[in-house]
Amino acid sequence: MRCIHSYLKSKSNIGASNRTWFQSLYLRLISMMKTLLLTVVLGVVVVSAKSAHAEDAIREDVIHLEAENGQLSGTTVATTRAGFSGAGYVSGFLADADTVSWVIPRAKAGIYQVALRYSADNPKGFGVVVNGARAEGMFAATGGQFATQTAGKVELKDGENTVSIAKGWGHYDIDFIELSSASNLAVLPKPPATLVDAKATAPARALMELLVRNYGEKTLSGQYDPGDTAYVREVTGQTPAILGADFMDYSPSRVAHGSKNKPPTEEIIALAKAGQIVTLSWHWNAPSHLIDAPYIDKNGQISTAFWWRGFYTDATTFDLEKTLNNPNSADYKLLLRDIDALAVQLKKLDAAGVPVLWRPLHEADGTWFWWGAKGEEPFKKLWRLMFERLTQTHDLHNLIWVYTGSPEKPEWYPGDDVVDIYGVDSYPADRNDTLSSSWEALRAQFDGKKLLTLSEFKGVPDAVKMKRFGVNWSYFVAWTGDSGPRTQPAADVKRTYNAPNVVNAKDLPR
User: Fold this and answer.
1) Inter-CA distances, 495 with 129, 222, 280, 463, Å
2) Residue 178 among the catalytic residues
């Protein structure tokens, strides 16, 4: 602008009409430059009154939305907690329908990284809903302060989009949400294919090498229960690469009640010989102290802790911490007895040359199973006891050790020296949820160190969408029954099993 003004002064002898034309041009340029400067400084594009205020910035690459400017349903604007940005924050999130929502009037289609500034006294689940598609995540505890946390990725369409924060577990505060373009997805580094068991069998090593080779490029399919596997085959024409089974009914306290494991080990071996990979979990019925009687629960209600619920914390008084601290006790001997009973079955698989994705003591950090009821230290001690008992006492080396945990609870992780694969069990409200929030949190901890897998899922995940979001679990294993593939649209199941980035049984090396 200064150069134009100087030019006009130097041309003071030009005709009046030309001078008037230059002055008019000068004024128009000043107006244009002011508008441009305002846009650059504020990063603001004009938005509708219902969707944003002056504190909100909506650009092509970054969309910043203050919570207090959103549309509130059951929630309220508050200012009592220090450290918020803008004019306040949104509190509440107590009822299931409580939300804060925004309308983004003009957005560029693409994948966006979500960041949330929030406060939560304890770990809390939450939901991010974009145009009706829900993604779930977990807030870490912030100790009463506001903190910013990445919350996975979402997909926006061209034009108008609606974004909401849904309750989830509730009892947290939201300061703002920010969405930034994530068009360039980070390359996923492959971890070493070396197993934690130095004496691992050749089949176990070959399986781990297969998983590492596919990691970041393709995901292996999996299904618990032969019955649900048959359903998947009927709907998709494909057999899952991985067969999931449970050794629950080999627990001695269940055998004492006449239980028979389904499927038995011999059937699992036959299915492995037919071309499937085996993953085994163990809903371990407590070795002793099963309640097996009515009792008053924490809500004052009468409940019955049947013996067959003996893997749940509320169905047994078995004290893991006390047992581990008293190795000469009867309960300690029963603990070893149970592990030894499972070793008998695992040895059958070893003798048949079948490697196992071994997933014991799962979901301990939820504390709903007795092996997690006394906290992380007794659990980690039990994990190591089992590792040593099976690999050293029983000379079992066909096992690939899969830990199942939560990324927001790293204190439960048993250690890199006794874990080969980190698994997540997820039962999202929306089965098309990519779980990108959990994926990114785990990558921050284990990138290049451990394979990450979806060890349980509520049905069949949307592997195509996950790939587009850069979420590349090593494998998935769908759960069974009402939480299995029979209760979701057959078209969704078929799409995943016939996706180019999914490995099925027919694609496995022979």
Assistant:
1) 23, 15, 26, 8
2) no
